[in-house]
Amino acid sequence: MASRPAALRRALQFSLRHSRPSTFSSSSSIRSFSSTTPSLAPPNPTPDYAIPDPSRPTHFGYETVTESEKRERVAGVFTSVAESYDRMNDLMSFGWHRIWKDHFVASLNPGFTPLTPDPDPRAPQHILDIAGGTGDIAFRMLHTAHTLNSNPSVRVTISDINPAMLTVGKQRSTALPASQQAALTFLEANAEDLTRTKPLSSTSPTTSSIPDASVDLYTVAFGIRNFSNIPAALREAHRVLKPGGVFACLEFSKADKWTPLFTAAYREWSFRAIPLIGQLVAGDRESYQYLVESIERFPSQREFRDMIVDAGFAVGGQGWEDLTGGVAAVHKGMKPRE
Amino acid sequence: MLLVPYTMEVALRRFAAIAARPNALRPCATTATALTPSRRQYWTPSRPPPNYPGHIPLNTLEKAALAIGSGLISLANPRRADLIAAFAEATATPYFIYRLRDAMLASPTGRRILRDRPRITSTSLNLPHLRSLPARTVGRTYVAWLDREGVSPDTRSTVRYIDDPECAYVMQRYRECHDFYHALTGLPVVREGEVALKAFEFANTLLPMTGLSVFAAATLKPGERRRFRETYLPWALRNGLRASEVINVYWEEELERDVEDLRRELGVEPPPDMRAERKAEREARKRAREGI
Question: Could you tell me which residues belong to the region Disordered (chain B) (predicted)?
Answer without folding.
Answer: 263-292
